[in-house]
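[SOLVED] Need 3D model of a two-part complex

Original post:
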Amino acid sequence: EAQVTQNPRYLITVTGKKLTVTCSQNMNHEYMSWYRQDPGLGLRQIYYSMNVEVTDKGDVPEGYKVSRKEKRNFPLILESPSPNQTSLYFCASSLGPQGVSYNEQFFGPGTRLTVL
Amino acid sequence: GENVEQHPSTLSVQEGDSAVIKCTYSDSASNYFPWYKQELGKRPQLIIDIRSNVGEKKDQRIAVTLNKTAKHFSLHITETQPEDSAVYFCAANSWGKFQFGAGTQVVVTP
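Solution:
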């Protein structure tokens, strides 16, 4: 089954304790992206990746790191989480650019993170 | 910075009526405009999208229009049904960078 998976789905942690949220897709998609969703703010892009070893900042990259060492995986790293990073996180993937335009993004199930 | 504004934030319609949600964007390089539906506790799912070289696209009861000159695009849902109740998000893409509107909570009452 074609899908985007994220782990963990739920996480409660404490300020300053490094954590990684994994994201994996089995559709051979070139493009992957991380978003956070907060009430009243919609989805805000954290980082995105056009292909292996290529990553770019979205609108809210502060406090986050990513890596794209292989096509299927795009982990999100919080080196020193703070309470303002409490949020619902979504990973997404798509085929990537088609000429100058883009294709449908498929979202993972989400990771609900609470930082105390 | 660049952003996407979405209106209204809430929309209540009678079953069978039409619903319209409007978005404006500021980045003139934006060339792909998807609309997502998100039901409570679930992930966003694409319902329709439009590229910058097209002015209108329709899929059954759902249509999207794009006015590149004015930098706005709209979602139209006709003959609304209770299962259309959800939060709808517009988005604009510019070379891989996506910006989303804040969302519209649509409630369809029988």
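Edit: Chain A touches chain B at residues 31, 33, 35, 40-45, 48, 50, 56, 58-59, 90, 97, 100-102, 104-105, 107-110 (CB under 8 Å).
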